[in-house]
Design brief:
Residues 38-426 form the Catalase core domain. InterPro entries: Catalase, Catalase_AS, Catalase_clade2, Catalase_clade2_helical, Catalase_core, Catalase_haem_BS, Catalase_immune_responsive, Catalase_large_C. Its EC number is 1.11.1.6. Decomposes hydrogen peroxide into water and oxygen; serves to protect cells from the toxic effects of hydrogen peroxide. Its cofactor is heme. The chain starts with 7 loop residues before the first helix and ends in a 9-residue tail after the last helix. Among the domains are: 88-185 and 220-391, Catalase HpII,  Chain A, domain 1 (Beta Barrel), CATH 2.40.180; 544-708, Class I glutamine amidotransferase (GATase) domain (Rossmann fold), CATH 3.40.50.880. The protein has 710 residues and is of the alpha+beta class. 42% of the residues are buried. The strands form 3 sheets. Strands 1, 2, 3, 4, 5, 6, 7, 8, 9 and 10 form a 10-stranded antiparallel sheet that branches. It is built from 19 helices and 20 strands. The radius of gyration is 29 Å and the shape is globular. It binds CIS-heme D hydroxychlorin gamma-spirolactone 17R, 18S.
Length: 710
């Protein structure tokens, strides 16, 4: 087969890393530019617009091989979507360890800080189908494939550190319950319906994960601003054969931030691709998302030192108890060239490990080890999907597996068995010293039994710890989410049982929800319940930065050019991007006669697309803006979504005609010409705007201003 190889590095000017995986993928690129069109057999085509007919107005002939090939290919160009995590978005990048981890693991990619390991990451939602919206309330998948020199290692994680169930055998049950109901396939991409909550109230082990699902974690602001967790307990094994239990973490350098429910729901309609667009644009603009890699480790002899079972996937290891050791960083720096070939065909599997990493007996993990390859056999049409470029390891594959659907490799020779003499017993197994994988020789002594360990029985303590660890706004959002989700359930008995069940987690939560959804307050709650606190669980305690946030700037003819230009420069220097919005697209003339281009207008833009708003001065500009209902609406929405707002000169007066005027004057802080009030900064009649810009950027870095009671 002949491939046309275009120059990867020229086309992707922003990528410097000369990494093995890119070189391998490059071999499969085909560039059609400047080429003549051919059939799949390489025959040049002279006309692709008209089928071959018996007479110009006659029937199409079966003889038309071009028509048949074109239509047949089209008819078959969909594959089954993933049974869960169907909607996803991927990107390439690389990983580097900060310091050698030799003491803990012999995994080669964790030994040398100079080694850059290529990675491919796919983020996803769980419940919705491929065409569903990005910003629904759901768990996010965070799956990473490391193409190491010892073969592929996958961390198939989520953005929530625990799971709904303790045993993989219940996975079909929880997924059937949360997916659209089977009689009418309604509702799409949401847990706000009877079958999900029916399952929850019948399965108390779901309590902890449901708390996370009802929290802000389930509506992230961006894939770039969420944590990733391996969830299951794995092992690190060093060269001496010493094993430790380990949990994997990804920590985004932009911190962990979320949307508001109202915002997320509006985005589902206004931009269903919000998260993919955000990731794609960030990478194209060179704002490469970065995540630090962390591990929590527990010594084998400490296994039973905790008040939870470290193999129970509905429990996390509190970071204050078992610190997360940050050991490296992943950078995503290249978008895919073809969504289907890469993102849709990538196949992750938690069973893909390398020497130095091993499994634990976590019963959820044990089931996962089977399920992924099994489902991929159907989805990718047979046992050769490891040959698809995105799935191929960067090291060669040598074994006696042969044939099957879509086999690409041509294995010459007569031997496809082992042992053999005709090929001198090759390919032959490697010794441990040669890099052969040897399973950790764990001692197992027990009876064959279908059951659950007593140590898995505490369903509520960590759910309570999660609630206790939330800030006041985060708690408010959880109550709001329960209100919406359980309020959408039709069966009153299920509603009541949700309230009763979560009374065991947090009586104050359950009471507020009961009141809002019209059922009785929970029976038999322990009002004096205290429980632990883990500050690491609150998003409020993660990194805050204005970097990569997006500001809307309003302009109409007569706007103050100087303040707009200076604001854009100041934002740009702080890594914040901005867009000019007017009542129409195209050039807008400032009061000094200079023109700037509005790349958005009030029809193509919306407050929910931005993190902050700036209304510059200019008498005529503000007079024009104030004629439009949608401008006030835009500001009001940004205000009620607790976003930062800046206004200068006449722009500051304009704010008085919006909901911003509802802020109490007692909350104002005045410094010189600068007035700041719960995330709103105004300035008037000043020559030096520097302080104003600095204050606005500081407000943006605070993310939201919850004092407005949002
Ligand atoms: Fe998955 N999961 N899962 N899962 N999972 C799949 O594999 C499964 C679980 C996760 O971007 C499927 O190729 C079982 C936990 C991600 O391609 C399937 C159980 C976690 C992705 C499957 C779990 C995950 C999947 C469907 C319970 C977080 C998307 C398509 C025991 C640690 C990967 C596929 C991608 C996908 C099975 C639970 C993460 C059916 C049986 C816990 C990120 O094999």
């Amino acid at each position: 087969m002949e491939y046309y190889c275009c120059n990867f590095y020229e086309r992707r000017g922003n990528v410097k890393e000369d990494i093995e995986k890119m070189k391998q993928m490059e071999k499969h690129q085909v560039d059609n530019k400047d080429q003549k069109m051919t059939t799949n057999m390489g025959l040049k085509i002279s006309n692709t617009d008209d089928s071959l007919k018996a007479g110009l107005r006659g029937p199409t002939l079966l003889e038309d091989f071009h028509f048949r090939e074109k239509i047949t290919h089209f008819d078959h160009e969909r594959i089954p979507e993933r049974v869960v995590h169907a909607r996803g978005f991927g990107a390439h990048g690389f990983f580097q360890v900060y310091e050698s981890m030799t003491e803990y693991t012999k995994a080669k990619f964790l030994q040398d800080p100079n080694i850059k390991t290529p990675v491919f990451v796919r983020f996803s939602t769980v419940v919705g189908s491929r065409g569903s919206a990005d910003t629904v309330r759901d768990v996010r998948g965070f799956a990473t494939k490391f193409y190491t020199e010892e073969g592929n290692f996958d961390i198939v994680g989520n953005n929530i550190p625990v799971f709904f169930i303790q045993d993989a055998i219940k996975f079909p049950d929880v997924i059937h319950a949360v997916k659209p109901e089977p009689n009418n396939e309604i509702p799409q991409a949401t847990s706000a319906h009877d079958t999900f909550w029916d399952f929850v109230v019948s399965t108390p082990e779901t309590a902890h994960m449901v708390m996370w699902l009802m929290s802000d974690r389930a509506i992230p602001r961006s894939f770039r601003m969420m944590e990733g967790f391996g969830v299951n307990t794995f092992r690190f094994v060093n060269a001496q054969g010493k094993s430790r239990f380990v949990k994997f973490h990804w920590k985004p350098l932009l911190g962990v931030h979320s949307l508001l429910r109202d915002e997320a729901q509006k985005l589902c309609g206004k931009d269903p691709d919000f998260h993919r667009r955000d990731l794609w644009n960030a990478i194209e603009q060179g704002q490469y998302p970065e995540y630090e890699f962390g591990v929590q480790m527990i010594e084998e002899d400490q296994e039973f030192n905790f008040d939870f079972d470290i193999l129970d996937p509905t429990k996390l290891w509190p970071e204050e108890m078992v610190p997360v050791k940050i050991i490296g960083k992943m950078t995503l720096n290249r978008n895919v060239d073809n969504f289907f070939a890469e993102t849709e065909q990538v196949a992750f599997c938690p069973a893909n490990i390398v020497p130095g990493i091993d499994f634990s007996n976590d019963p959820l993990l044990q089931g996962r080890l089977f399920s992924y390859e099994d489902t991929q056999l159907t989805r990718l049409g047979g046992p050769n999907f490891h040959e698809i470029p995105i799935n191929r390891p960067i090291v060669p594959i040598h074994n006696n597996q042969r044939d099957g659907m879509h086999r690409m490799t041509i294995n010459p020779g007569v031997t496809s068995y082992f042992p053999n003499t005709l090929a001198q017993n090759t390919p032959m197994p490697a010794t441990e010293e040669e890099g052969g994988f040897v399973h950790y020789t764990e001692k197992i002594d027990g009876r064959k039994i279908r059951g659950r360990s007593e140590s898995f029985r505490d369903f509520y303590s960590q759910a309570t710890m999660f609630w206790n660890s939330m800030s006041i706004p985060e708690k408010k959002h959880i109550v709001d989410a329960f209100h919406y989700e359980v309020g959408s359930v039709k069966d009153k008995n299920i509603k009541q049982r949700v309230v009763d069940m979560f009374g065991n987690v947090a009586p104050d939560l359950a009471e507020q929800v009961a009141h809002r959804i019209g059922v009785n307050a929970p029976a038999n709650t322990d009002e004096n319940k205290v429980g632990a606190v883990s500050p690491a669980l609150s998003q409020e305690n993660t990194i805050k930065t204005a970097m990569t946030r997006k500001v809307a700037i309003f302009i109409e003819n007569g706007f103050c050019t100087k303040s707009v230009m200076q604001m854009m420069d100041a934002l740009n220097s702080a890594g914040v991007s901005s867009e000019l919005i007017s009542s129409h697209l195209g050039m807008v003339t400032g009061k000094d006669g200079n023109q700037l281009e509005a790349t958005k207008d009030f029809t193509t833009a919306d407050a929910v697309f931005y993190d902050a708003v700036y209304i510059p001065g200019g008498r005529d500009s503000i007079a024009e803006l104030s004629k439009h209902f949608c401008t006030r609406n835009f500001i009001n929405e940004a205000f009620h979504h607790a976003k930062s707002i800046a206004a200068s000169d006449e722009g500051a007066d304009f704010l008085d005609s919006t909901d911003v005027s509802s802020l109490s004057p007692s909350q104002s802080k005045i410094e010189g010409e600068l007035e700041t009030q719960l995330g709103v900064v105004k300035v008037k009649n000043t020559q030096d705007m520097t302080k104003f810009f600095e204050e606005f950027i500081k407000l943006i870095s605070m993310d939201r201003h919850w004092g407005r009671n949002c």
